[in-house]
Amino acid sequence: PGDCDGDGVPDYYDDYPCDGTKAYDRYFPSKTVFGTLAYEDLWPSTGDYDMNDLVMRWRFHAVVNAQNQVLELNCKAYIDAKGASLPGGFGVEFPFNASLVSQVTGSQITAARATLSANGTEAGNTKAVMILFDKATNHLHSPGGSFYNTVQTNGISTSDTFNTKMTFT
Predict the structure, then answer these.
(1) Cα torsion angle, 39, 42, 48, 54, sign
(2) How many beta carbons lie within 10 A of that of residue 157, not counting itself?
(3) Running DSSP on this structure, what letter comes out for residue 136?
(4) b or e along 98-123 (b: 16 or more beta carbons within 10 Å of the residue's beta carbon)?
(5) What share of the chain is helix, strand, coil (3-state, %, to 5)?
(6) Reported pTM
(7) pLDDT in tens, 23-68
(8) What is the C-alpha to C-alpha distance for residues 8 and 1, in angstroms, rounded to an integer?
(9) DSSP state of 111
(10) What Cα–Cα distance (Å) separates residue 161 from each residue in 23, 110, 155?
């Protein structure tokens, strides 16, 4: 088989057959399925274990090169439910140093509740932290007030979609 970009990956297997810097797409949990994370903001306080204070749906898409090194990590997410009166923000801490990140784009800082470093990771951390948003209520389209998709009489609502991208040095 041919290898248009000369990266050593045959075009048939190459998700980027004419781009020598990229080779494969990797998805987690999968290309078509979102994972779910339910968060309790007052844990471990007793009496409030409803796990509905922030419910996120997320999917990661990694672009890797022919040597299987991650070049960029894309996160697509949305808020599925919010059952807390606190404004709530959301970020992901990764198990590697923030200095390995060249840039994070797409963070929704609308309430100055998070501070970003020059490369877009959250300031004040040695590990890389990607902030998706700093105030959930600024991204909800809900007629039911602060309780979003948690009270049946409030109806079903939608949130903004967050598309955050991390590129590496």
Answers:
(1) negative
(2) 15
(3) G
(4) beebeebebbbeeeeebebbebbbbe
(5) 5, 40, 55
(6) 0.89
(7) 999 999 999 999 999 988 877 777 777 888 899 999 999 999 999 9
(8) 11
(9) S
(10) 27, 15, 19
